[in-house]
Every structure is written in C-alpha cells, then in structure tokens.
Design a protein that fits this description.
By secondary structure, the chain is an all-beta fold. It is built from no helices and 29 strands.
Length: 340
C-alpha cells in the first residue's frame, strides 16, 4: 500500500489505484493493472508522484504512470527469487530485497543494479535509509538486521540474532535509534552506530509486529496479526493505545498520508481502512509510569478502535502497558530512557 500528495492510494494483489474522500460515496477506483503475472507484494510512489513502482512474486519490477496506470518500464527478471520488499531512495535509486535474502540497489539512469549482496539467510522483510541516503538498513526472516553503505557499495555488518523473524524497520529519535518489529511481538531498539547488539527491547503483547511506521520522532504505529494497530511511544516505552482494527484479521501493511493526518491499513478481510491519527503528534509520555493490574483493556484512540464504545470486542484484548488514572503511581523508570 502506498500514498502520495493527492488523495490517491494504491492497494496490492491485483494492483488498483483509488482516490479517497471524507465525503460518503466519494471513494472511487481510478484504474487497475494486471501487468504482474503473480501477486503484487509492495508498491511505492516516486518522489515526484508521477510514477508508481511495484514488485511481485513473479520476480519483476514494474514502473507505471500514476495518472492512467500505463506501464512505463519493466524489469522482468530483477531477481532470481520472488521479490518481497522495496524502498525508493531518491529520484534515481531504489532497493529491492527477495525471498532468499538478496539485496539489490538500482540506478534508473543506468537501468541496472549497481549493488548486489546476499548477507541474509532468509527473506528481506523491510528496509530503511538514513537522512543522508548513505546507510541502508534491512530486516530479515533470519532474525537479523543488515547494515549496508550504498555510497561505498559495501556491506558493513549484521546484528546479533533475535528471537523470531525481524519483520519491519524504522529510524526514530531524530536518527539516533532504530526500531525493528518481530514475529514474536517484540520491538527491538538499536543505537545508531551500535547496530551489532540491541540497546533495549519492548514486549508489545501482540501476536506479531508485522508493519511499523514512524508518526513522530518518538511515536510509531505498529500493525499485528491480531488485527490491531497500536500507537507506541519509544523511550519511555509505552503502548499508548489502539488506533484501529480489522477484527480477527491479520494486517498486512499500514501507510501514512502525506500530511500525517490519516493512517491506512489493509488486511486479510480485503478491506482498506482509514484512521485519524492527527492527535498523536500532540501526545507526550511521562518518563515515569503507573503500574496497573493485569487484565486491563487497551485504551481506544478512536471510536472504531479496540476499546471504543462501538466495539463489541473491546473487553477481549488485554495490555499491561496502559495506565489508568485511579491507580497508584510508581516512579518506575523505563530502561534506556536516559540514553537519548
């Protein structure tokens, strides 16, 4: 799923482009594409918003015109294995990672990959690039994070192995921290320039953290296989509450609108849902937390989220990190909170 600065979203499987509206009945399909021979796994808008990149299980990369969905360029055999992840770096460079752990970095001016490395033993699940477009980070099903210097075209290191798959990656805290989601429901934190070992870890109490996206320097949204989208503050580590839900359906991916007001999610229920996240940027979290009793409900950040008044299932989900006003406060400082 991807979004650019007009109200256009693109969803996966058979690639479709939709415009959305806050007015009832205002959503419409703009075009659909069947260029890929197998399922489409990820899409991304070019930096100027005029092109749409897509990757597929058929091992190809397609570049299409956003306005009409016309195929502009096809790289038929971009990888030897199905492509699983993609990251647009700038107007000329993009990176792809496949099911076998191979990373490629492409230059559109040459039409070829100028960097190809296989350091992971399993699929590459996610990628992120620093502000200087120099250090590329990858997460993998082998439980490691990879660090690559694309300016010098070299591999730097792999992190230590973590429990379960590392599913996603985001750069936080003004570039000082890196957060990785995992299939074990943990978020692992790394210090920048300290990629070998984690500096902290945080149990989200979710079945799996499959997709994460930064909202502010300290807050990210995390989507899980339990169908819940959680807003999470890092350092101090807190689950702030539930942003939205696909009841009982694993969420595949989340994406933020260009203005930061909305979050879109797609899940196994074949629905794309939109959530108002405009209030998250105003949230501040204390360095100290109140300990709460077991069995407390996850705080709802909207009516449609878990715990909202309209949610029949609101009493069925539990979180241990959310505080309640009536509980006695304990001055318990979070790990690593003083390091930033």
């Amino acid at each position: 799923m991807s979004h650019y600065q007009s109200n256009i979203w693109c969803a996966l499987l058979v690639l479709c482009s939709h415009s959305y509206s806050c007015v009832e009945g205002g959503n419409k399909e703009l075009w659909s594409s069947g260029h890929h021979l197998k399922s489409c796994r990820e899409v991304a808008f070019s930096h100027d918003g005029e092109k749409l990149f897509s990757i597929s299980k058929d091992k190809s990369v397609h570049i299409m015109d956003v306005e009409g969905g016309k195929l502009v360029k096809r790289i038929s055999k971009a990888h030897s294995d199905p492509i699983n992840s993609m990251l647009l770096i700038d107007e000329n460079l993009f990176a792809t990672g496949d099911d076998s752990g191979t990373l490629k970095v492409w230059d559109l001016r040459r039409g070829t990959a100028f960097m190809e490395m296989k350091q992971h033993e399993e699929y590459i699940s996610g990628m992120a690039i620093d502000h200087d477009k120099k250090i590329l980070l990858t997460t993998s099903g082998d439980g490691t994070m990879g660090v690559f210097n694309i300016k010098r075209r070299r591999f730097d290191l792999l992190s230590e192995f973590q429990n379960g798959d590392l599913t996603s990656v985001a750069i936080m805290k003004r570039g000082k921290k890196v957060a990785c989601g995992s299939s074990e429901g943990m978020i692992y934190l790394f210090n920048w320039d300290g990629f070998g070992a984690t500096s902290d870890r945080f149990a989200v109490k979710a079945e799996s953290v499959d997709s994460i996206i930064p909202i502010t320097d300290s807050i990210l949204c995390a989507a899980s296989t339990d169908g819940v989208i959680r807003a999470i503050n890092l350092l101090p580590n807190r689950v702030i509450g539930s942003v939205g839900q696909h009841v009982g359906e694993p969420i595949e991916q989340i994406a933020k609108s260009y203005d930061g007001h909305f979050l879109a999610s797609c899940a196994h229920d074949q629905k794309v849902k939109f959530w108002d996240i405009s209030s998250l940027s105003a949230i501040t979290v204390s360095d100290y937390r109140r300990r709460k009793k077991k069995g407390g409900n996850l705080k709802s950040l909207s009516k449609k989220a878990f715990g909202g008044g309209d949610d029949f299932f609101s009493g069925l989900i539990e979180e241990t990190e959310i505080k309640k006003p009536e509980e006695k406060e304990e001055e318990e400082e979070d790990s690593d909170s003083g390091s930033d």
